[in-house]
Amino acid sequence: MNEIVVLSGKGGTGKTSITASLAVLAGNEAVIADCDVDAANMHLLLNPDFATTIEFYSGELAVINQEQCTRCRKCEDACRFNAIVYLNKKMQVMPIDCEGCGYCEKVCSPRVITMQERKSGNVFISNTKAGSKMVHARLDIGAENSGKLVARVKNEAKSLAVAGNKLFIIIDGAPGIGCPVVSSLAGANYVVLVTEPTMSGLHDLKRICTMIRKFRIKAGCIINKWDLNEEKTTEIKQFLHDQQIEHLADIPYDISFTKAMTEGKTIVEIQSPNREILDRIWNDIKSQLQN
């Protein structure tokens, strides 16, 4: 079993559209994992059925026993996040502001504050239109620990892949270089980088390549919409050559990507010359991993 993580240094490069296309091409050979838990959207293209929902708990939340609370307001004074307020004649915890540090519990004289595990999101296990299983998640509004939620999504995907004897796990990672990206890279066999020929595209590609080098994972890069700025495309190709990163393909700008998205489809499901390019990319990645 091989883990393939698709990443981009920035948003808007076409990463998720390309990942979903690879998922369709892989079919039931792969388990799909959407690890962009802060802004998950691959379900819009793969039509999952949300067959199973698992609540995800991480971190702690202060809870006040209102019947025993004396309203001394020591907790309000102690909280440096302004998460505890006196409202409607009682002390109330604002969940979106509470950091779960537990200091209010320590200063509470009547001992009526307890720290309880908090629900931070949901994990879904679905069947997709491609014939594959998909693990995806939704982080609750204002919730933290997205890196831990990514780890949970990956662990569920691995379990499904092992149980189903699948050859691949295809992972759609978050943009940028934050905790969710670090978590999605753990245990990966190959990274597909998706970039665009812009100044910010190259800048953020350099940042994420620095991170990948620390993980010592083999990587290849797709330059999407390469023909919009041929000078910057040439600059990106030189950078890939210097960093010994495989240049997988150039994908030209194609309005069919937008047409497919509005229909809830991937580019490989409609008539587009880019289907052949993506088919070649997928076969190239498979060949490298299987050999």
Keywords, separated by commas or semicolons:
Alpha-Beta Plaits, 2 domains, 10 helices
How would you describe the overall organization of this protein?
The chain is of the alpha/beta class. The protein folds into two domains: 2-47 and 130-290, Rossmann fold (3-Layer(aba) Sandwich); 59-119, Alpha-Beta Plaits, CATH 3.30.70. Helix content is 36%, strand content 27%. It is built from ten helices and eleven strands. The protein has helices spanning 15-26, 43-46, 74-78, 103-107, 146-163, 179-185, 199-215, 230-242, 256-262, 274-290; strands at residues 2-7, 30-34, 52-64, 84-87, 90-93, 113-127, 133-139, 168-172, 190-195, 218-224, 246-251. The strands form two sheets. It has a nine-stranded mixed sheet, with helices on both faces. The longest helix has 18 residues, at 146-163. The model has no long low-confidence stretch (mean pLDDT 92).
